[in-house]
Amino acid sequence: MTFSIMDFVIFGSERSMFFPPPTSSTAAEVDSLFYFILWVCIVFFIVIVGVMGYCLIRYRERPGVKAEPSASHNNILEVTWTVIPGIFVGVIFYWGFVAFLDLRQSPDESYEIQVEAKMWNWSFTYPNGHVDNVLHVPVDKPVRLVMTSVDVIHSLYVPAFRVKMDVLPGRYSHTWFEANTVGDYTLFCTEYCGTKHSEMLSKVVVHPSGEFEKWLEDAANFLERMTPVEAGEILYQRRGCAQCHSIDGSAKVGPTFLDAFGSEQSLMDGSTITVDENYIRESILEPQAKVRVGYRPVMPTYQGQLKDEEINALIAYIKSLSEGSQVNP
Ligand code: CUA
Q1: Whose CA is nearest to atom 1 of ligand 1?
Q2: Any residues with CB less than 8 A from the CB of 81 and at least 6 apart, and which?
Q3: Is the pLDDT of residue 327 over 50?
Q4: What is the CA(280)–ligand 1 centre distance, in A?
Q5: Which domains does the chain have, with CATH numbers?
Q6: Cβ contact 20:159 at 8 Å
Q7: Using a 6 Å CB cutoff, which residues line ligand 1?
């Protein structure tokens, strides 16, 4: 993408040097205020530095001209350079405060989605109980996010919507937006939260009018529609396993799932176990119970977060990643 000077100059331009195109109901207001402040700063910078430079040269000490203290102060000048910036600060405060209230106060009819952040993935829970790691929303409808963290401070950021709000452990924060353009947008964690903070990314999918409800129903019923292995693969992606467990044999924060099932492994306490259904189930529900040598006990528990069918599907998927596994797809 290339930018011309006009992209920089125009207030609230569709394309700009600083922001992606605005795609939410409040984004244009944020942009206008930003460009207003930017241009106030540019104009004042030029005026102040220009006058300063002129005075430096015009009144410099040189042969025949000696430095002298000013005879008195200039009332008109001092009142002018106090009142004019004062008016600008007042305008910026009023405009910013009104826009801030709009960003904080979600409309009453908002569609509510629960957000949970943990190191290092997002999960979004819909009113029908469906959990996803991608945020799906309908177009042209206000969506309210009720957010909490299970470990440290994270922060949800969707640049295209100009939405940014901290997600805190032990309390709920909220934000809202109304997406007005169908498409996919990047969702970031924008609060440093540990080793893989920069990979704590997700997506917002804005569905066309009428298609969101259909997507939600389909997504919620995936366990019934799919084989356990297929459902397990989806859960592996959706529920954050993929952040720490590879399926290609490489070691990440946790051990790889490739050829894990049926293998013998050493534990931190010196004993040995065979990776079987019971070990996987226990490790999902009580990750600290039997930690393998070479890994730190950092996995959060999924107790109460995965249903039995979901754990079964994950076990089936992990099984399917082992050579010679006896799994019927
Ligand atoms: Cu979560 Cu950075």
Answers
A1: 154
A2: none
A3: no
A4: 27
A5: 6-54+74-104 (no CATH), 111-220 (2.60.40.420), 223-320 (1.10.760.10)
A6: yes
A7: 117, 120, 154, 189, 191-193, 197, 200
